[in-house]
């Protein structure tokens, strides 16, 4: 009976671990991405799930702006992480400045509402890059300092959380093929602000980040 109980506990814990982190690398990554030189990080789609009483105190525009702010905070945190590692020679590719990326997207009237109408190939061509880094952040409360402060002023809540999950995708700019995908369930141990969170997430995936080991 004890051995059966132990098996159930181990199986349950392994299941939780597999659900908390999932990394996919395209088996043909080297073949597809061998000529990649520059990637663009586009604003993430942030889905912030607030409590009903908090939602009542916000207008649709305020809630929309809150989620836009969160998505750009993740974009900025990823840029900081990648640039820091790139400066140390950790990656074989460079990353387009997000200010340039966002300016080009705005110039072409591409935003959260219509970005899904564009294929990865479309975006890569418009941005002039070899691949696109995108993703989704699902959280119960804002993580970026600015969004958390804004929410506090609006509905009386201060502080941040990290319950939810973060999905990071890298797609090839020529074919749109998914090259890499990382789905990480958020936990308190990862930190509560965006930069700390992203740094922790990427640190945990560093060994399997494909461009780190890509040989030209």
Description:
- There is one protein chain.
- With 216 residues, the chain is α/β, with parallel strands linked by helices.
- The chain has a single domain (22-212), classed as ABC-type transport auxiliary lipoprotein component (Rossmann fold), CATH 3.40.50.
- The chain is 45% helix and 19% strand.
- The chain contains 8 helices and 7 strands, in the order αβαββααβααβαββα.
- The protein has helices spanning 2-20, 29-33, 52-56, 60-87, 98-107, 120-127, 145-155, 194-205; strands spanning 21-25, 38-41, 45-48, 94-95, 131-139, 164-172, 178-186.
- Strands 1, 2, 3, 4, 5, 6 and 7 form a 7-stranded mixed beta sheet that branches.
- A hairpin with a 5-residue loop joins β6 and β7.
- α4 runs antiparallel to α7 and α4 packs across α8.
- The radius of gyration is 19 Å and the shape is globular.
- It starts with a helix and ends in an 11-residue tail after the last helix.
What's the gist of this structure?
With 216 residues, the protein is an alpha/beta fold.
- Which structural class should the secondary elements be placed in? alpha/beta
CATH architecture: 3-Layer(aba) Sandwich
What is the string of SSEs from the N terminus onward? HEHEEHHEHHEHEEH
Please state the CA-atom Rg, rounded to the nearest Å: 19 Å
Distance between the termini: 55 Å
Mean pLDDT: 79
Q: CATH homologous superfamily, by name?
A: ABC-type transport auxiliary lipoprotein component
Shape verdict = globular
> How many separate domains make up the residues?
1
Major sheet attributes: 7 strands, mixed
Q: Tell me how many strands there are.
A: 7
Indicate the proportion of strand residues: 15-25%
**CATH fold node name:** Rossmann fold
Spans of at least 5 consecutive residues with low confidence: 1-19, 145-161
